Each structure stands twice: as C-alpha cells, then as structure tokens.
Amino acid sequence: MAKLQRFEHINLSCQDIDASKSFYQTLFPDWYVRAENQEGSDRWMHIGNDQFYLALNHNPNHKRVHEIYENLGVNHVGFVIDNGEAMKTHLSKNGIEYYTMTAPETKHRIYVTDPDGNEIELVEYNPDYSLR
Prior knowledge:
Helix content is 16%, strand content 34%. It has helices at 17-27, 84-93, and strands at residues 9-14, 32-37, 44-48, 53-58, 77-80, 99-101, 106-113, 119-125.
C-alpha cells in the first residue's frame, strides 16, 4: 500500500498572479519562485519554500464562486508559524488586515485574506501542546 510522504502544494487560481505573488512573499519573506511559465494565458507560478509551495494560476477573467464558511469547499488553509506577535507586527507594518481567534491549544490564531479572497490561518501553538 502506498503511504503519504508529505503535503506538497495547494493550487490556486488568481485574478492577478503578480498581486498574489507579492502578497504571499510579503506574508512569508523566505518564499521564492520555484518554477514558472510566463507565457500568455497559460501563466502559472510555483511559490514557496523547500518543503511546500502554492501553485498559482493566472485567470484574470475568472470570478470567485465559493464564499468561505457559506458553501462546501475549502474554508481556509492553515500554516504553523513560530512567533505570532512578530507576525502581527509584520502584518501591520505591511498594511495587511487580520483578525484573531483563540483556542486552548494555541498561543495565536491569526487570519488574513489573500487578494483573491482565500482565507489563510497563521497559527502558533502553545509549547506544551503535544500535537504541535
């Protein structure tokens, strides 16, 4: 039986691939373009780090059809971060709006929305949480 080795990527359609690239590189300054095709209507980009990436597809004439928490589908994507206070400072400094929530197992749960309306959760777990 084949076993999952790791989670590799998420594929996102973007109205403006350059705006999405800028947003994600601001959110995660260590991310870089791993691969790309800049040719016309088939423009795409893989942006991330050595473990994970987002596959961005340029679809300027498409509209979002899913409203998060209102329909079936992906409601948000979560990323584990190491310092929630530093992330909130970074977001404020770069003009990225966010909101927070609390949970017993987390020190920080920070939510941002990318240029295409995809919600991203940035979570810092409590040090004593065993599944962090």
